[in-house]
TrEMBL record, chain A:
Residues 71-102 are annotated as: Disordered. This is DUF2849 domain-containing protein. It comes from the Bacteria.
From TrEMBL, chain B:
It comes from Parasedimentitalea denitrificans. It holds the Pfam family DUF934. This is Oxidoreductase. It comes from the Bacteria.
Automatic annotation (TrEMBL), chain C:
SUPFAM superfamilies: Nitrite and sulphite reductase 4Fe-4S domain-like, Nitrite/Sulfite reductase N-terminal domain-like. It comes from the Bacteria. This is Sulfite reductase. InterPro entries: NIR_SIR_4Fe-4S, NiRdtase/SiRdtase_haem-b_fer, Nit/Sulf_reduc_fer-like_dom_sf, NO2/SO3_Rdtase_4Fe4S_dom, NO2/SO3_Rdtase_4Fe4S_sf.
């Protein structure tokens, strides 16, 4: 039996900035995982991924990443995605810096 | 239809004899250049080397080996060769590049002509006292 | 030091213009991402976890103060105020925007630097002994050869789309400080019985998934045969190296599968074809290059200031004892500046620190700096009387750490904090290890002990050749660290032995502590280094210390 489909978000890097971005339900890209569309249907996930991959002028390397529903929106299940949504652990750079400026 | 790229830009294919007879060879990128050179028929005037992907650079070594072994006929790079590789192809001993119309549309003539100056800024040529790498 | 001539400058301007156009063509769709990727990689530009990363070459690890100052400018203007020195004598900037990179490359060109072939399936940035031209044990300065190889390999038309990367290192000393045996190809300057200088060539070394120690393919290559020989090796490999599996594409696997006799026969045959295309221009070029590397006019002066400071200042004395190496001139020294302050990221220097080091080089160091594969910065020529002033300045800027060759002088790759290929973090492990052993105040008692940490199997952190190697992996979604012991990065190179099952992130520091404490118990004298002890007693006692639970079960 095929493995049951687990919820996913679509993530990529921005072509110019290189920053980690997520596809939202309204077809925009957000820098915040909490704003991503959490996809629970496999067929829909594949369609959305094709949509994302067709946007070569904006994004690089779109893929499906496992996520779960949390209090404030999708949350990562793997530590790699945790680092991607947060930034490096040795300096408060990247997304942590952006938060500090809010 | 395909497009032939030379130092003067895009043009039609003037090789009309095809690749079936004794005068031409159509080779895949995994051809062993040593065996090729050993078995090369004197009638061969055209050798076309395939690039299944632009990332497969074995064709450059094959062309180079042909030139080093004294082959003076035509060598053509065929397939997925991008404009950025034109200078590499010429410096390795290719005479021209044959690309699809789709690729020619995506990477128009100006992008190829930008590399028609392949004889300039050539470290290999400096190392060899000015003669091109393939000479 | 080599200075760009008109040809080099014109080449680089043309190359940078090409890259600027490639960025524009990626944005306008002329180049697909698949096509753009190898083009940006061969210009040093990666897309990492959080951002692009630009890897700038510091060929054979040599740079002057103007170049170091320019790196500081890049760090401040286009990055976040720092740069990361790597194990291959490069510097990496972790946060550039794609649209800024062409300007960064132009800024580098102003000081004769570039990022060409610091990545991609190309011949990579040529590395060399970081003490070249200064070490007392040297046969000949290896840098002219390295510069010749840099020029030959740059934009080589046959070798821009190979099956995998190809790394070359050059050494000229009795001791190997360039990890020669871990390179695809190593050039070692040697002298034959007739007193002639030539090159011993090794191939097939490499770390990564299948670590291999390089083997000699040619024992003595005459000087004039070097480039045609290298070209023959790379050409043969480009043709027969495997392209079906990237983990089997490096020349170490080609050598393993074909055997040395077969490879040597192919190389010799190809060499015979290539050699006639080199008719001496390369040797004239070599002579020109050599002149640039003439030793500086070493000044003579009293070393009394040094002797006094050494006697009276214990902090200075500790730094001298640890961070200095013997120079070919008795009254000079080689200074290694530690970029491994306890608790900081190994290899990271701020723009301010870069400028301080550049100023010191300009004022005291004949305007020369080096980057070591151990991720430190070196002032290769310093008169001993200047050492107290240099040390005082370094201390003010967090650069005075006295730990070269000690347990906190850790090599660590960027790991999961930055790298898209990583499977676990490296940096925090290095930071915590250095902090812990600093707290224990045992570092100097432990003596020479190299810890090397990689955050994935590709082994950028050289873990296989660390006395203690640490490899971070992803085990079922959790970071897990494997330990290898007994690796050696010198001419007696050895791949470390795996100690046993891995450790979780919060278990790895205590695990290393257990190894070190076992060593302190087992060593025959305080002078016996960790590696000597390991070679004497083997893995067993360290394994017992690492896995006390398993011992109990057996008992």
């Amino acid at each position: 039996m095929a493995r049951a489909f687990t919820p996913k978000v679509i993530t990529a890097n921005h072509l110019i900035e290189g920053d980690v971005i997520y596809l939202t339900a309204t077809d925009t890209w957000s820098r915040d995982l909490a704003e991503a569309e959490l996809i629970t249907d496999e067929a829909h996930a594949q369609l959305r991924l094709l949509d994302a991959q067709s946007q070569a002028a904006t994004v690089v390397g779109a893929y499906l990443a496992d996520a779960v529903s949390g209090d404030a929106g999708p949350e990562p299940t793997h530590f790699r995605e945790e680092f991607r949504r947060t930034g490096p652990s040795n300096y408060a750079h990247g997304k942590q810096e952006a938060l500090a400026h809010v | 239809m395909t497009v032939i790229v030379t130092d003067t830009g895009f043009g039609p294919d003037t090789w009309t004899a095809g690749y079936e007879g004794n005068t031409a060879l159509d080779l895949p990128s995994d051809t062993n250049p040593v065996e090729l050179v050993e078995q090369l028929d004197a009638d061969v005037q055209m050798i076309r080397i395939n690039f299944p992907s632009f990332a497969d650079g074995r064709g450059f070594t094959i062309a180079r080996q042909l030139r080093l072994s004294g082959y003076t006929g035509h060598i053509r790079a065929y397939g997925h060769v991008i404009a950025d590789q034109y200078a590499m192809a010429r410096r390795s001993g290719f005479d021209d590049v044959e690309i699809s119309e789709d690729l020619a549309a995506r990477q128009p003539e100006t992008q190829w002509l930008a590399r028609a100056n392949w004889q300039q800024h050539n470290y290999q040529s400096r190392m060899r006292g000015g003669s091109p790498a393939a000479a | 030091m080599y200075k760009y001539n008109e040809f080099d400058a014109a080449f680089l301007a043309e190359r940078n213009a090409q890259f600027r156009a490639q960025v524009e063509r990626r944005i306008d769709g002329s180049l697909t991402e698949d096509e753009f990727k190898p083009l940006r990689l061969m210009n040093g530009l990666y897309l990492q976890l959080h951002a692009y990363m630009l890897r700038v070459a510091i060929p054979y690890g040599t740079l002057n103060s103007a170049q170091m100052n320019q790196l500081a400018l890049l760090a401040e203007k286009w990055d976040k105020g720092y740069g990361h020195f790597t194990t291959r004598q490069n510097i990496q900037f972790n946060w550039p925007k794609l649209s800024d990179v062409p300007d960064m490359l132009d800024a580098l060109a102003e000081v004769g630097m570039h990022a060409i072939q610091t990545s991609g399936n190309t011949i990579r940035n040529v590395t060399a002994d970081h003490f070249a031209g200064a070490a007392a044990d040297e046969i000949e300065d290896p840098r002219p050869v390295a510069e010749l190889i840099r020029q030959w390999s740059t934009d080589h038309p046959e070798f821009q789309f190979m099956g995998r990367k190809f790394k070359i290192a050059v050494g000229g000393g009795a001791k190997d400080r360039a990890v020669l045996k871990a390179h695809d190809l190593a050039v070692r300057v040697v002298q034959n019985d007739a007193g002639e200088i030539g090159y011993q060539i090794l191939i097939g070394g490499g770390l990564g998934r299948t670590p291999m120690i390089g083997k000699v393919i040619n024992d003595f290559l005459p000087r004039a045969d070097l480039l045609p020989y290298l070209e023959a090796v790379v050409s043969v490999w480009n043709q027969i190296g495997r392209r079906d599996n990237k983990y089997k594409a490096r020349i170490k696997i080609t050598l393993h599968e074909h055997g040395m006799d077969d490879i040597r026969a192919r190389v010799d045959a190809r060499f015979a074809l290539i050699k006639p295309t080199f008719q001496g221009a390369d040797q004239e070029l070599f002579s020109e290059i050599e002149a640039y590397f003439a030793a500086p006019d070493f000044r003579t002066d009293s070393t009394a200031v040094f002797s006094t400071a050494y006697k009276t200042d214990p902090v200075f004395r500790s730094w001298v004892d640890t961070n200095l190496a013997e120079h070919r001139q008795d009254d000079h020294a080689i200074v290694t500046i530690s970029i491994k302050k306890h608790g900081a990221t190994p290899g990271d220097a701020s723009a301010e620190q870069m400028r301080v080091m550049a100023d010191l080089a300009a004022k005291y160091g004949y305007d020369e700096l080096r980057i070591s594969h151990e991720q430190n910065v070196i002032l290769p020529h310093v008169h001993k009387s200047d050492l107290p002033a240099i040390h005082a300045k370094l201390k003010q800027h967090g650069l005075g750490t006295a730990n070269i060759g000690l347990i906190s002088d850790i090599i660590a790759c960027p790991g999961m904090d930055y790298c898209a290929l990583a499977t676990a973090r490296s940096i925090p492990v290095a930071e915590q290890l250095a902090t812990r052993f600093d707290e224990l105040k045992l570092e100097h008692d432990i003596g020479h002990l190299q810890i090397k940490i990689s955050g994935c199997i590709n082994a950028c952190g050289h873990h296989h050749v660390g006395h203690i190697g640490i490899l971070g992996l992803d085990r079922a979604g959790v970071e897990n660290y494997q330990i290898t012991l007994g690796g050696d990065a010198t001419w007696s190179a050895a791949v470390g032995e795996r100690a046993g099952p891995g450790f979780a992130y919060d278990e790895i520091i205590p695990a290393v502590e257990r190894i070190v404490s076992a060593y302190l118990d087992i060593r025959s004298t305080p002078d016996e280094t960790f590696l000597e002890t390991y070679r004497r007693v083997g893995l067993a006692p360290f394994k017992a210390a690492l896995y006390p639970e398993a011992q109990k079960k057996v008992a």
